[in-house]
Amino acid sequence: MLLEDYKGLIYYLQNPFVEKLKFNNFIMSKEGEFHFYEVKKIFLGIYLIVILSIIIFFIYSLIKKYNKEKNDMLKLFNKGANILITIFTILLIAIYTDFSKAFVIFHKIFFNNDYWIFDEKTDPIIKVLPEEVFKLYAIIIVVLLIIFIIVYKVLYYKSKKRSITK
């Protein structure tokens, strides 16, 4: 019952071809439905940015390879990784220190309304998606991103060291 609606929510948020969110076991207000639509736009925007970035990276790499030029993209990624580690570490500290405040600031940055403030009478889904769930999601996402960046940096420095010793 609950898992069915949760899977439906995730499917709705991640699939650009699903136009309407419908819960089988929960009522939903128009404001709640609109908030989930706004969240969906953010998810799809992130996916689009990732896909376009990958395409641009491959096109750039192919052009460099075709012109027999040195591809300095790894250096650029390393600088970006330094910035991201700083940002994600600050985020992790903010989440750990006062998640409620960070949660409110996040919503004020990404949403121009208060539809994210659910009333459990009109949007009972909030009873099973309390703030603590989002705190756990945020910690997992930020920690995984930091780990991926650290792995990238380790591989970057290993490849750099290998190219110096050759």
UniProtKB/TrEMBL annotation:
Keyword NAD: no
InterPro entries according to UniProt: Lit (IPR010178)
Domain of life: Bacteria
Coiled coil (UniProt feature): none
Residue intervals passing through the bilayer: 42-63, 83-106, 136-156
Pfam families: Lit
Annotated keywords: Membrane, Transmembrane, Transmembrane helix
Entry protein name: TIGR01906 family membrane protein
Organism of this sequence: Clostridium isatidis
